[in-house]
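Glyoxalase/bleomycin resistance/dioxygenase family protein: structure, please.
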Amino acid sequence: MAEHVYGMHHIGITVPDIEEGIRFFKAVFGAVDVFRTGPFDVDEAFMQRKLGTPGHTRIRDLVFLRCGAGTNVELFEYEGEDSSARPRRNSEIGGTHLCFEVEDVFASVERLRAEGIEFLDGPNTVTEGPLAGFNWIYFNSPWGQSLEIASFSSLGYETNTTQRIWSAKLMG
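Here you go.
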C-alpha cells in the first residue's frame, strides 16, 4: 500500500513581478502572507539538478500565501528567463488553471468587476450531469495565468456515490 497522501500542499506559480502577484492574490482571494525567502544563494548545479531550470537562472524571491482554507499558493520570481513569455493556454499540453472555491460566485464577480477584473463569459451554472449545481467563471491574472472561481451547494454526481471532491465547506 502506498504512503498516505494528505492532500495538495501548495501550487507554485512563476510570476514576472512578485509584488504584483502578491497584490493580486490579496485583492482577489484575500490571501495572507505566510513567509518570504528573498533570493536563493545557490549555484548552477542546484538550479539544474534540484529545480530542473537552466543553470543560469536564479530565484529572485519566493513567497507563500494562504488563500482561505485550501491549498497554499507559492509565488516565485526568477531572473535569467524571458519574463514576457505568456503562460500556456488551457488547451496546450502543460496548460493549467487554478480554481478557487468562493461562497457565492455571483457576488464575487460583482465585487471583482468593481475592482477592474475582466472575466470571460459568465458566471455560468451547470444544469445537468455530474457537475449539475456548479457555478463558475474564468478570468486571467495580470500576467496571463488562467484562473477560475466557483461555488456550489451540492453537485449532480453526489446522488450516485458516497465519494466527495474536496471542498472548503467540508473542511469547515
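Notes: The two ends are 29 Å apart (CA to CA).
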